[in-house]
Design goal:
The protein is of the alpha/beta class and 289 residues long. It is 40% helix and 23% strand. The protein is built from 8 helices and 11 strands. It has helices at residues 20-25, 45-51, 64-74, 93-105, 179-200, 212-226, 231-243, 250-278, and strands spanning 5-13, 31-38, 55-58, 81-84, 89-91, 111-122, 125-126, 135-142, 146-148, 157-159, 163-173. Strands 1, 2, 3, 4, 5, 6, 7, 8 and 11 form a 9-stranded mixed β-sheet that branches. Helix 5 crosses helix 8 (250-278). The longest helix has 29 residues, at 250-278. The chain is globular and about 50 Å long. Residues 202-209 have low confidence and may be disordered.
Length: 289
Amino acid sequence: MIIKTDLTVLVLTMNEEKNIINCIDSVKELARRIVVIDSGSTDNTISLAESLGAEVFHHEFENYASQFNWGLDNTNISTKWILRLDADEVITHDLAKEMAEEMEKHKDDEVNGMQLKLKQCFLGKWMKYGGTYPFIKLMLFKNGIGRIENRKMDEHTILSSGRSILLKNDVLHYDFRDLTYYIHKHNWYAIREAQDYLENKMGNSVDALEEGSLKGHRKQKVLYYKLPKFFRAFAIFIYRYIFQLGFLDGKEGFIYHVLEDFWYRFLVDAKIYEYQQTGNKIENTGALK
């Protein structure tokens, strides 16, 4: 049995009726409060979330960072801890128990954040190889200390003080929607990634507040963007699919790495090239429709 903790779960939604039930069900015994920030759902997301006890707020989407930070600032969160959870993520029972224990253990010390390990599912199969597992993300943090950095893409939680620890159990990350949606979503991501690259000149610096796995991730991205355009998409595919053994995940792994590492990364470079050649203003993506 899991006892309710001094925790608020914050979830951003936009037409997530296929995912929201599993997401909320996974934390409703753990959290004192579940807050959903919706950016204009036209399906049953809102009614489903409310039926499961979540409080739903409405705010127009600009980007993930500003949307999440708006939720931190405008929903009267008073709990000690806050969990950043996407609608297609599920907290396992074992992880919920571990989180409850660790939140109580560290409620009054310098541990102000907890990193969670995400287990990625693609086309119904868990991706084990190719650098896919574990994807580590700082998702749980003390109120007033954690905040999402102001980036258009690849935004992470940054702590203003203290340190974070890594928990043992997994978050399950999967989306019940199809490849058509996946491709549409990644085209949306590519616009934001190109915008983030051009606006922030990726690779010039690493934020001093970054720690652990995030600092390592940013350094890898710096090296990636030093490679020539287009070639780097081939390079990252070969590296992850061959040298990091992505081929061991079978047909699903092949499709995943072709789309995620080659096609998506090539598309980002194509958009960067387009903007640099034409000088056109980068479009505002808004919410993913």
